Structures are given as C-alpha cells and as structure tokens.
Amino acid sequence: MSLLRIEGLTRRFGGLVAVDNVTLDIPPQRLSAVIGPNGAGKTTLFNMISGFIPPSAGTVHFDGHEITAQPPESIARRGLIRTFQLVQLFEGLTVLENVKIGCHLHTRGGLLAALMPLAWAQAEEVAVEAEAHRLLEETGLADQAATSAAVLPYGQKRLLEITRALAARPKLLLLDEPAAGLNRQETDALAALLRRIVANGTAILLIEHDMQLVMNVADQVAVLDFGRLIAQGRPEEVRRNPDVIAAYLGSQEAARA
Amino acid sequence: MLDLLIQSILSGIGVGAIYGLIGIGFCVIYNASGIVNFAQGAFVMLGGMLTHAGMTRLGLPLPFAAVISVGVVAVAGVLLERIVVRPLWNRGSTMFVMILATLAAQIVVERMTLIVAGDQPRSLPVFTDLPPLRVFGFAVSFQFLWIVGCSVIVIAGLALFFSSTKTGKAMRACSINRDAAALQGIRVSRMLALAFALSAGLGAIAGILITPTQYTAFNVGVPFAISGFIAAIVGGFGRPLGAFAGGILLGVAQALAIVFLGSAFKNVAALSILLLFLFVRPTGLLGSAK
Amino acid sequence: MNSLITIWAKARGNPIALLLWGLAAALVLYSFVTGGYFIAVLHFAFIYTVLVTGLNVFMGFTGQVSFGHNAFAAISGYTSAVLTATYGWEPLPAGLVGLAGALTCALVVGYPVLRLRGHYLAMATLAIGLIAYEVAVQWDSVTKGYMGISGVPPLGVGSFTVVSDRGLLVFLLIAAVLALLSAAGIRRSRLGRAFVAVAGSEDAARALGIDVARYKLIAFTISAAYAAIAGSLFVHAVGFVSPEVFGLAMVVLSFTMLYVGGIGTVAGPMLGAIIISALPESFRTFKDYQDLAYGAALIAILIYAPRGLASLPELWAKWRGKDA
Q1: CB distance A72–C191 less than 8 Å?
Q2: Cα-atom radius of gyration of chain A, to the nearest Å?
Q3: What ipTM was estimated for this complex?
Q4: Nearest CB to C211: which of A73, A100, A147?
Q5: Is pLDDT of C310 > 70?
Q6: d(C-alpha B37, C-alpha B106), whole Å
Q7: Report field, pTM of the whole predicted structure over 0.90
Q8: Which of A98, A101, A105, A163 would you mutate first to test chain C, the one with the most C CBs within 10 A?
Q9: CA distances (Å), C50 to each of A250, C129, C192, C238, C310, in order?
C-alpha cells in the first residue's frame, strides 16, 4: 500500500492551472522525487499535500486516511512533515532550540508542566534535550548547537531545517529543494544524509532541480511540466524519456547528470 | 419621530464628513508608507486649537487664522515624519513599533498642548452667523453646508492632485511600488514627507470645520483619530473615497445609535462597528486597494 | 525552583546582569529601610511588573500585539473593587471572580481577534481596551462612572490584613517575583517553545504540528490572567479605582516599561517597571509633564534602544565572545 496517494490533484489560480490532474503513489521507506522545470507546479503540489493551500479538485490520502484540505498542523500530526523552499527557521533561537521545537508533536507538556515541577514533564524535557543533541550529531550540526540560527551559513540553515523536521519523527518527509544553493560537497553530504534517513525507515519525497542529486538518491522519480505529470518511474528510465528532455529545454541538464 | 430621525441623520452626515476627512488622512499615509499613523488625531486637535490661538492671541480674522494653522500643522506633520517615523523606518523597525511610536507622539503633542494652552475647552465662531436654512422643513445649519462644501472641494482637489499633477502621480507610483518608483527617479523620502504634510493638513481642516459645532481641547485628538480610523477601515483601508464613505456611514450610525440607545452608547457604537468590520470584512466595504 | 537556578546560573558569569540585579536589590532594600514615599513607587513598580510580564508573554514570546490589555486589568480590578467595597466580600474570592471574568472575556474576545494580523490586530485590541474604558465610565450604577469607587479594603485573608506599607511591599515583591519566575518557567517549557515558534515562523510552526491559532489564544489568555491579577492588586493597594486608572496611560506606561526593560527577556518587565516608576520622581507632582516625558522617552527608546536594558547582558556577552 502506498504511504501517500494523490489522485487527480488540481489547483487553479483564476485562469491559470498550476497543477493539472496529478495522480501519484508514494511508497513508504523509499526516496521519491518530483522534478520539472521552473514553474512546473512542484511547490504548489507540495503546498496542497501539506495543507497550506486547498486543492481545486482531487484527493490526498496519507497512511490510509484522507487528508485533503486539512489544516497543516493536523497533517503534520499524522506524520507528514515538510520543509520550505525559502528556509523558515526560528531565526531568533539557537540551533538546539529550533530542533527541540521539532519534538513538539510527540511530547505533551502544557501550562501546568511549565509552572510546576512535575516529574513526567521534567523527564520529558530531559528526553527532548537528549534527542535534539542526538539528531544534531547525526546531521553534523552538533558543534553549532548553541549558535543563533540566524548567523548560520546558508547550507547549514538548510541542514538545520531538515534536522528539525526529523525531530518530529515523520513517516514521510517532504523536502522542498533541499539542495538549492549548496555547493557540490554539501550536496554530496546531503545525498548521504537522505539515504541514511530512508534507511532508518522514513520515506522522503523531494522536489529538486539538481539532476545529479536526484539520479543518485531517488528510488523513483515523477516529472511535472506545466502542472501535468509527464513521466514517472526509475531515474534511469525517466532521464531517457524524450518528453522529459524536451521539457527541460534541451539536453543540457540531462547531459550534466 | 421621522423628523428627529432625519434631523439626526443630517447631523450624522456632517460629523461623518469630518470623520471621512480624517480617514482620508490615514489612507494617504498608509498608501505612501504602509504605516498607520496613530498621531493623526493630534493634527485634528491642533487645527482647531491653533486657529483659536491665531484669532485670540494674534487677532487674525478667522479665514487667515485657519489657513495659517493648516500650514503650521502640515509642517508639524513633516516634523513628525522626520523626527519619529524616518529614524524607525531607516532602522527597519517592525510596524508595531512604528504604530507605538506614533501613539507616543500623539501623547507628547497632547501633553505639550496641555502645558502650553491649559485644559480649557475652546471653540470657534461659526463661519456664517446666520440662522439655519429650512430645507423641506429640516434645519440645515450653515456650518453643515461649510463642512460638506469644504469636504467636497478638498476631495475634488485631492483627486485632481493625484490624477493630474506630476507630484500627485509620483506619490501614487510610490504607493504602488516603492522600489520601481525610486528607480524612476522619484524621491521617495520626499514623497513620504509630503504624505505626512498632506495628511496633517487634512486633519487640521477637519478640526477647523468641526470646532464651531463642538469644542476643542488638548484631548480631543484620540477620539477623532479612532473615528477616522474606523472610517478608513469601513471604507477599505487605502481607498480615500471609501474612507470618506465610511466616515459618513459611521457618523450616521452614531447619530442613530444616540437616537435609539442614548448618548451613552455613542462611542460603544463606533467601536462595535470597528470590531464588526475587523472580524467580518477587514477589507472594508469597497475592498482594500492593496 | 528550577527557574531560580537557571537565572542565577546565567547571571553569575555576566557582570552586567549582576550589576542590574544588584541595583534592583539595593533599591528594594533601601526603600524598605527608609520607608516613606519610595515604597509607594515600588508598590506601583511591582504591580506593573505583573502586568508587563503578561504583556511580555503575549508580545515578547509569541510575537503578537495588544494595545488592550488594560481591559483585563479593568475587568478584574473593578470586580475586586465592587465586590469588596460595595458588597463586603473578602479580597481573595473577589479577586478570583475578577480573574475568572477577565479570562472568560479573553477567551471570547481572543477567538475572533487573534485571526487578525498587523495593524488590524493592533486596532482591534485597542478597541477592546477603549470599550472597557467606556463601560467603566457609562455603567455608573455599578462602577460609579468617573467618580470611581473608593474605600477598597486592603489585601488580606480573614483577620490578617496587609496594612503597613512595608508589609504591602513584601507582598507585592513576592507577587512580582512569582510573575517573573512563572514567565521564566513558561519560556523554558514546551509551551514557551511553541510560543516562540509562532513568533518565529507561523508556517514552520504549523508544519511541525503546532496549532498556531490555539497557541495564540493560550498566550493571550495567560497574559490576560497576569493583567487581571495586576488589576486586582492595584485596586487593593491604592484603595481606589476609577476609569482613568485603567485608561490609555496604562497602555503607554506598560509599553514603555516593556521596551525599556527588554521585550522578550525574562527580567525585562521588572527592570523596566522599576526604572520607569522610579525615574521621574521629581515630576510626580506635575502629572502632565510626566506623561509627556514617558511619551518622549518611549519614542527615544524605540529608535535608539529597541532591545531595552535587559538585552545589555547579552550584548556584553556577545562582545566578550561568549554565548549568553
């Protein structure tokens, strides 16, 4: 059974059809990618899946439940966690605090826990601290734990956003252009991290432009152009697909990969 | 009963026109800068107070005192922009901080006026000292005619300014897209100062027009600012014509509230309308311009 | 409590923080010893500490705006005054009823208001504060309008009442310290983290499962509770209530204190409250100059020192190359 099932998902903005009748199955514990030229509707697709904008038509099912047009926080609660194309960190906080906020979903403390020294709440705080440190170790940001998120270099900001998303213990991680602005070295490190995440049992669906990254890490690839799904399958098949090549305006990208 | 109703509505229109002028002042500054100027009421207050001072201290006839006071208040508007708004703008302060600063400026102006002029309410003589006209059996005071007439002239003048003069068009360009305007060689900072001057002038005119029918004192600024703000919200923040319509609506609604519920409810009615629009239709009757 | 330990730990290595705390402690001790006028100033400062701490939770932590918290202080303050002075209730139950009233109002009003943003939110909250003022003035059968209610009994439980100035000082100091500690506790907790997440990025917060609308309402209600408690404390400490007590001046004053002290910090509210209360002593007889000075001071602070005093230790630490 697929983890995420999108059926006939469509989004119109006035006369413009940004996403046109897209149907996709995303399997669990695999790395899937959505690629396509700029303006192909990829982020709009993500926004609909994660509840940030409602679809004009179609349905989204996650983990057996229908989540179409539900608010983002409800969808997140089901285990679907997303990152953003323009990094949305909590800039005024430290790296560690950013990650700790990621743990919100699987912890319970409220006002009472804030005011009284309740044993279970204190134990929870200790656990959250430990988990946050552990995640930072895993993604390589451990020595930046006390640094303010605002001053991190761009590549590390992206990494922090992923670390924070992992803290939410997602079943499916939606990554919107995680490699944007990264150099070759950082992208390779990212690729290794993504494969580790999938190996640990979390499915990933990513939007990307970087063909090399996608070809290296993805188990399956879907291609959007002008909002429509034009190809689907394993990376090698998709890469050779003439429609895909044409959509990317020539063979430059395909040749580079 | 119907007589009372229509008479109330007429007086509501008169007050409403004043609210509308103040509301237009809000719009002008908001359109030019995205700031809500909570010190708008201070300009209204200064208009009336300065005109009174001009007449009593300097012995000027009313028209002269009025014109000079509008000019002085316009300068005060530019001072506010230079001293308070510009430094915050340059430091990239959040909009809340700027609102707070203009609110503080309102208090400063209010208190300075209190210290200089005392807390005695003042009034101005009516512009035309004749008994009210009788129109279809209803009393229409000359002051009402002055208010409505001046409002129409002011609005027409503004419309002409924004649509036909170079400066006016430049200001509109700034409000639509500041960066593009700057690239076109428009001096954006000058436009901001001009917006404040214009808005202050509008407030002063409103204050001068209304003072003969009620009093003015150091503390009338805030209630007027609130009414003007409500007018702007009801009309759709950013649309001057809408603000004027909103003002009329507010004035009439208040007048009706006084008739049916008693004068105690005057302010509650106004504030309730504000909350109603904020909750249900924040973009106002005509929808926001931006 | 844990918060005390953390505050001490943070302050210990930082000379500026120690200096500020030392000054505050010296001030309190001085007024306790000498008595007289200065104690009244600190009464005022500690009551406002509670109010401003609440504002800090809503505006500093959660990054929202409210120009109308004086409404909650008014609701609880008037309830306390009316129940104790007019109906002879004990202060504590009266205060609890006042608190309940303010919380109910916060929940009812907060729900629609908090869907607004920016200047709409600012204006709506201002409207709430103004409506509260109007009600206080117009509902004169209960509130006695402009004249106000006098003869509000002092704080106390049963036969034990806090009558002396020094006793009241200790009581209010404890209240202020509890306010700060509770705010610190909130900030360090999961709840506080959710608040600052809302301030940092609403989208990111929602994407992590935080129900932003709900947490805004929680922050709003919590801060209303602080305001309500401050309101009740005020009427008992002063023995009198009128609409002016909870008017626009309270809004400007509390914001000045919030910004001087440092918005978003834990100790800021108390530092700001003490300084703003203590400063214009010589102006006290000239109330008009006082408000003007506050207004001008607020403008200057907003322009030149928007992070306030309590951020000084942080600046020091950064300057020294350590993390605060």
Answers
A1: no
A2: 19
A3: 0.91
A4: A73
A5: no
A6: 9
A7: no
A8: A101
A9: 66, 18, 18, 16, 17
